[in-house]
Structure formats: C-alpha cells, structure tokens
Amino acid sequence: MSYLKIDAIHKSFQEGLPVIKNFSLDIPKGQIISLVGESGSGKSTLLRIIAGLESRNEGEVYLDGTRIQNPKEQLVPGIDEIQLVFQDYHLYPKSTVEENILRPLLLFDKKYKESRLEMLLELLGLKAFRDKFPRHLSGGQQQKVAIGRALSVEPQVLLLDEPFSSLDTIQRRELIMELKTMFQNLGVTVLFVTHDLDDALQMTNDLVIMQKGKMIQKGHPEEIFSKPKNLYAAKLFSHLNPLPNKEKTYIRPSDVQLFKTSGIPARIIERQYLVHYNQLMVKLTDGTVWKIEDKKRVFAEGEKVFLKWEEEKEITFSKV
Ligand SMILES: Nc1ncnc2c1ncn2[C@@H]1O[C@H](COP(=O)(O)OP(=O)(O)OP(=O)(O)O)[C@@H](O)[C@H]1O
C-alpha cells in the first residue's frame, strides 16, 4: 500500500531544461528503498521536493494521503514528519552532541526532550560522546549525530542524501548495517540516495535507478542485474564487453569462462591482481579489448586464452 506517494513530479530550474521528468514512486510504510543515480541525475532535487523544501513545476507528493505543500505555500518550509539528512552532516560546530540532537526540540516539553535524547543516544551508541563537540568525533559518529537530530522529532520518513560519501569503506559498511537494523526496529520509512551501488545493496533489496531526471528501472537487484533496461542500469553492476558480431549485445566479465584449448581465441595483454580474482584485459582477434575475471588466478600476461559463455547470459538492448 502506498504511504509516501511521489506522483508525476516535473522540475526545471530553467525553462526547457528539466531536471526531474515525470518521476513517480510509491513507497509502502516502513520500507527502505535505495535510489541510485549518477551525479547530476536529480537525486538531491527530488529529495528536497519530497521534503517540501523545493518547489515542483508539476506533480504532487503525498504522505499517508496528505499533500506535501510547496515551500511557497508555507511560512516555514518542510514538515517534521519528513526529515532530510545530508552528506556533510550540517551539525552545529559549537554545540555538543546532546545540544545538536536536542536542537529541533526547543519548543518541546522538558520531560519529553530528556527521554527522547536518552533513547537516541542509547540507540546510536553515542552516550559516551554526549558532551563532545562535532570536531572531536569521527565522520561516522558525526553522521550518527545528524541522524539522531533528524530522528529527534519522530519523523515518519527519513530521506538520506548520500549520507556516507565522506566515510571510508569500512566505516561505511559498519554504519550502514547498524543503521539498517535501527531503521527497521523504528519502523521508519527510508529513501536512501547514493551513487554507489554497493552501499545501496548493503542498505536494501529494493532499488530504484534514476538517470537524467527519469526513473529507468525499479525492482530487486537480481532482476535488474539480469534484465537491465539500459546500458546505464547494466553498467552500475559491472563492466560490459561488447560482442563483436551482435549489435547492442554485451556479456559481463563474470559470465565469461576461460579455457586453455577451445573457445574464442584472445591474447592476455594485462593482468591486475584484485581482491577476489585477477582481472585480465584480453585482445580478441578483431582487436576488441575485453575485461575478464580469472577467478583461479592461473593465466599470465602474454598468454593465449580461449573464451566461452552461455548465450542466455548475453544482454541485448533495443536501444543504447
Ligand atoms: N538551485 C538550483 N538552481 C539551478 N540548477 C540547479 C539547482 N539545484 C540543482 N540544479 C541542477 O539540477 C541538476 C540536478 O542536480 P542534483 O543536485 O539534484 O543532482 P544529484 O543527482 O543529486 O547530483 P549529485 O550526486 O552530484 O549530488 C544539476 O544539473 C544541477 O546543476
């Protein structure tokens, strides 16, 4: 059932140059959805529109049936029920962790403030840091404070705008796992925006792919992996090797098998040691260069190799 309904949103900052094009998405209550798109595809603009902080030219956003107003229709843009969290935390540098989290609760009752603060510090593992200033915290801890501040007003929806981009890979993975469980326990509806597919997959199973302001595809990653709607959606998952004799048809490096005696001949021109396999660059007889995965790490640079793959693994697009 639709809870957060984004209905045919259209947005241009300049006449004739749309940034969001007819974008619709229904998110059921309590779901976590990842929205993946390249830089400039309109992700932040869309989040700001959903939060009521940016005006839209066409379309509507509804939360549980209530229309979200455009900023111009409100005295103070935005609503408590929908909170936006940014990549660069937006913390108050001269306020402690406690003060940052309490900031949106200025007008709330003292008892409520105290209990909400204790609950959030506990939930986010920030009790030991309550009196520290943001500059004394790691990037991950600062982002937790920003999320704590967003959660202080008990929002129904959290919009996360590339919240982990400033963190290193290990910090990111740990924080995503921790937050995912927390969001599920709180029952909050989350739209997580990122340009990193790995982060998106760590956070959720439901993916939405956006390109140039349009929704390209949505669904389970497995489905998008095997039946991508376009080259951009396909390339989010891996490199694609073009088939020499078939137009607009590709094969993923992980789907190509390597043999020593039979198959399509190629010469290894480069070998790179990666975590899970050796990545080989091979030159086919027509000069095309492919990327291949040597999972057993048995092939060497300069060696001749033979390639095979199952036809059903080939990916063909009607248009690229
Ligand atoms: N206030 C604005 N005025 C004019 N153009 C804008 C404004 N905000 C965004 N844009 C333009 O809209 C397009 C989409 O920007 P947006 O920040 O929404 O993309 P994004 O997908 O979030 O990108 P990134 O991942 O780099 O943050 C860009 O071309 C940007 O320059």
From TrEMBL:
<dbReference type="InterPro" id="IPR017871">
    <property type="entry name" value="ABC_transporter-like_CS"/>
</dbReference>
<feature type="domain" description="ABC transporter">
    <location>
        <begin position="4"/>
        <end position="237"/>
    </location>
</feature>
<dbReference type="GO" id="GO:0016887">
    <property type="term" value="F:ATP hydrolysis activity"/>
</dbReference>
<dbReference type="InterPro" id="IPR008995">
    <property type="entry name" value="Mo/tungstate-bd_C_term_dom"/>
</dbReference>
<dbReference type="InterPro" id="IPR003439">
    <property type="entry name" value="ABC_transporter-like_ATP-bd"/>
</dbReference>
<protein>
    <submittedName>
        <fullName>ABC transporter ATP-binding protein</fullName>
    </submittedName>
</protein>
<dbReference type="InterPro" id="IPR027417">
    <property type="entry name" value="P-loop_NTPase"/>
</dbReference>
<keyword id="KW-0067">ATP-binding</keyword>
<dbReference type="InterPro" id="IPR050093">
    <property type="entry name" value="ABC_SmlMolc_Importer"/>
</dbReference>
<keyword id="KW-0813">Transport</keyword>
<keyword id="KW-0547">Nucleotide-binding</keyword>
<dbReference type="InterPro" id="IPR003593">
    <property type="entry name" value="AAA+_ATPase"/>
</dbReference>
<dbReference type="Pfam" id="PF00005">
    <property type="entry name" value="ABC_tran"/>
</dbReference>
<dbReference type="GO" id="GO:0005524">
    <property type="term" value="F:ATP binding"/>
</dbReference>
